[in-house]
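dumping these here so i dont lose them again. two proteins, back to back, each one seq then structure tokens. dont judge the mess
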Amino acid sequence: MEAILALEDGRVFRGRSFGAPGERIGEVVFHTGMTGYQEILTDPSYHGQIIAMTSPEIGNYGVNPGDGESHRPWAEGLVVRECSPWPSNWRATHSLSQYLKEHEIPALSEVDTRALTRHLRSRGAMRGALSTVDRDAESLVAKARNAPRIDQLDLVGRVSCAERYDWSEPRDPAWRTDLGLPEPSRRRRLVAFDFGVKRNSLRLLSECGFDVIVVPARTQAEEVLAAAPDAVFLSNGPGDPATLTGPIETVRSLIGLVPIFGICLGHQLAALALGGKTFKLKFGHHGANHPVKDLRTGSVAVTSQNHGYSVDPASLPRGARMTHISLNDQTCEGFQDREARVMAIQFHPEAAPGPHDAHPLFREFLAMVGGFDRGAEPSLEAQT
């Protein structure tokens, strides 16, 4: 079946459908990872986006029940050069095509993804319409142009959990990660905000010795403090961080009362809560091969990234120090405020399937929490 991807600037790419029939509209971005397509599709941070993979062949190891970062794929659509119809892996239970059809995700193959990627790098990420039912180019371009922008959508509200829950996934030996930590003398309590949290973040926090309580994005500071946490985690998630005024105020109320660790969207929310600013990147960072320099040590890590917005380091308040920088475009990749006990990272140290260069950041966070003396239970009144 023929399918079409039409961009809002009028550029059209034709190919063959290998996913579900239908039509989706979203922000079109490219991803430079060679593996991990199942984790990418199931990462809630990609909600509202159509993903173009730059690797020429996708799907050769199929899909399995254990590798998803959430319970379903969240991407609006997938665009590839070639999709392997016959997966070859002992863990595979579905082909990529079967998986996409099962979850009603349209996908397009036989596309010149190099040309599409170069176009997005030149013009920037933009809205697009992917369809197997409407194959009129002008009609699809108009739909893309008239669609809401990603900063006009409540994407976090769609992907966040509805109710609080305790993370209790049994330890799977296949997922046991060696973080270089001794067995904890006691379990600590951590509240994780679900702005689109990935399962592997929760796995690694549990491996750090935390009993993890996951709460919806709308949770208020009073509810968090009532759980008497030793630490708070701000997860990844989709969309424009500046639109999340409620969570920003909540994080602002928690700063100084409990150690906070933010990843990706959580990094941006922590910066905004401290009074910083964010801005939209031209085409974002989406890949598993981005070099990041730790400004404190000079070491360089290869990292997994997925974000369309960035923190303006010049806007961070006094006391907040930029700790990591992208070697691709010199944007802020992390900061720390020691006095406020806030640690925030733009990339993904929990990356699955990898790379794992940034795993030591979990040890660093645990060390920060270990130095926190709860004493009397923290309260909002104590802050004021």
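---- next one ----
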Amino acid sequence: MLFHTNVFIFGFLPVCLTGFFVTGRFCTALWALRWLVLSSLFFYAWWTPVHLPLLMGSIWPNHAIARRLQHSGERRAWLTAGIMLNLALLGWFKYADFLLHIVFPDAPALTITLPLAISFFSFQQIMFLVDTARAAEAEDRMHPPRHRCNVGPGQAAATDATRPRLPSLLTYAAFVSFFPHLIAGPIVRPSEVIPQLAAPGLVRPAIRNISDGLLIFLLGLGKKLVLADMFGGFADTGFDAAAHGSMLTFFEAWYATLSYALQIYFDFSGYSDMAIGLARMLNIRFPLNFDSPYQATDIADFWRRWHITLGGFLRDYLYIPLGGNRGGQVRQTVNLMATMLLCGLWHGAAWNFVIWGGLHGLLIVIHRQYRRMFRPLPRATGQALTLIAVTLAWVPFRAASLPGTMTVLAGMAGLHGIVLPRMILAALPPLALIADPVTVMPHLGDARTLSFPEVSACLVLGWLIVLTLPNIQRMTCRARHWALTGSFALSVQALFFAPHIAPFLYFQF
């Protein structure tokens, strides 16, 4: 089920909210949590019912392993087993075919269907196991087991009380399957959400939370339906043409790439806003996942702003365990490149994602070396260079193949010529000094004479939004209402009359 469909907005969401709060009011909080779990499982099964047993079957083993991790006997072995269990499921469904063709290029495809959201709920459960083990180890350091037998009954009871309590299986199931973040994040941490799911006031409706959550949801909906899908159409025209062997000219290549940079931002930040808004309606607060990343002044700043929850996961559960900043520069560089390559591979089992991760790793390494040797660049210069580097890196991420990537990059370099419609050159004669006249530009917009000014105006508007305006979470209440007023009519039109429903981009990751 998609957040931006009629069946979700006018069917699932009101039934889920009403059932949750009514059950909590007239039954118990336990039954309300059960309702939430059942609703989330229904939400997941609506899209891919065949994979529902996989999601449900992964919850109990991880919870059982977490119980074992609270005892010091063979904690490391149980943690390793739990992580390997999750990685094995993820590896089989997402990477088996990719790895098979690396070893045996001519082998037939395994045709394994990728379960929806397996990357996200696998990461959630790995975090839960690691955090449980870390909490138990911290408790053991404070109260070593060998000392517990030497204390009195009252003191022993106090020691047991300090041990972090494992959430019940129902609460844990609610955390993993919670429908706002289940499909495409944010990758929320157990310590952020599980205490909220167990809070006494969870099942009491809060008008402020419902109104704020609905406002954030509708603004995210506008990002997706009004902006992301529009720029997606422009990007698809150019990149699909490159995938079929067409040579993109200068403006066609640049406009396709700039459109995709806006599409993926508005698409995923819109999804994150909708998820934050939905969780807020249910009295759950999610962390910020996007913080105006295209306003970053360097590549490290970009990764502190882009998909913040993924960046935090990679830092705390991969980069630091690999060694982080410990050791010499060579070791740090290896740790960083390994983390970013795996970040790229996490997005998909294809070389274009690996290349994208490697490019970002290389950019961060270059930035670190520059920072050690030179003074910081002026803010405007740093922001411009970062934006150009990030935009160029989106080309292999979006292109269907390496030849398609090279076609787009060659077009951006002007190697396939610079052309503009004759009408545009007639209206602006100075452009004739750099561009040749054509009837239409076949790979720009819908290939009309006016496609060039139309796409140009849309790009100017889109980039002004991301480069000058604050994100939704940092807007004032007044600014949010003005933004909603401006986008509401267009959102309603797209919701009811769009020719097709475009899934979120991160559904494929």
